[in-house]
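Quick entry, no commentary yet.
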Amino acid sequence: MLSYPLNEKTPIYGKKYAFQIKEERQIRKKDTCNTFTLSFSNHSGTHIDAPRHCFNNGRCLEQYDINELIFNRPHILNLRKGKNELITGDDLKGISKCDILLIRTGFYKLRGLNEYIFHNPGFSAQAANFIREKCPWIKAIGIDTISISGYQNRPEGRQAHRILLTNSGYPGKPLLLIEDMDLSAGSLSLKKVFVVPLYVKKIDSAPCTVIGEF
């Protein structure tokens, strides 16, 4: 599994819109069944951003065919990054030809701490531009930080989002972005990645289950 389960302790970018679970009906209270109400942002936990996230005319998640969410040539890039560091184009030179690029910064080790939420490494606009210009075969990027947008570098992160999600100005199609991934699997050989988003119409992003075939 390359995604985290959702719960009340799920870290949320900027600590907004905390995930909540409310008990509605409980067998232990003599109800006939167990039911729950869930309340959460669509950018909670391991989630996938579609172009709609930054562009009103961008594709929504439900417009993607299941085959566009199965990746047969994954590549894990071990790229150690610390607090507030930005990923640059130089960091990405020489990556193999792949359909999904998974960036393991090692920052997942701080998940559960405030540093993970407020001091995460992120993408520079230059790195996003490098991906679009030099690697048009990449269909998706995944990262082991809460967002590709560093919280302390939000303007840069917003620009990186727009570059990666835009439908114009670059060869290749807009990318999908998977944030807050569990990439702690070490040196295991990853052969295939399946991404299964929550199936909701008209939204820009959704929590997703990411399964790796090793």
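second:
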Amino acid sequence: MNTIKAITILLSLTLLSSSVLAAKVEMKWTDPDEYTDIHAGENNRKHFREQTFKNLDKHFSKLASQLPGDQTLKVEVTNIDLAGTTFHGGMTRIRVVKEMYPPRMEFSYQVVNADNSLILKGEAKLKNMSFMMGRTLRYRNDSLGHEKEMIDKWFTQTFKEQLTDK
């Protein structure tokens, strides 16, 4: 019984310490009503937008976990144009994804240390014109897969010097 308790405590401390060592993310969604395209197909527009922001927040957090734990990634999103576009078909509205409607995203970013000293900052204007070609299986069933692949590529290129081996 004591062995089980010891293993449980050790596992809990290991999980806790790895989450403490992960970099933090601060996301800011500036003027989302002005974004180019964050429209739902048949879903409730407000709910769709909230779910999209939540999903992208989680994705940025996952990526930031590769940065040193004493750092914070601050992202201020100023525009999103999701892959595809929405069309009205009578009473319904559907999202159609074609090559002519690539995903785009604009944001500024900063990486700061625990003492708030600036490590890196910049502006990102992401656009993936070849998003329909060679899509990896990683996000095959993800509604924001095209956007996540685009963000992954940016993150890897931008932070290659800061990435830890996790």
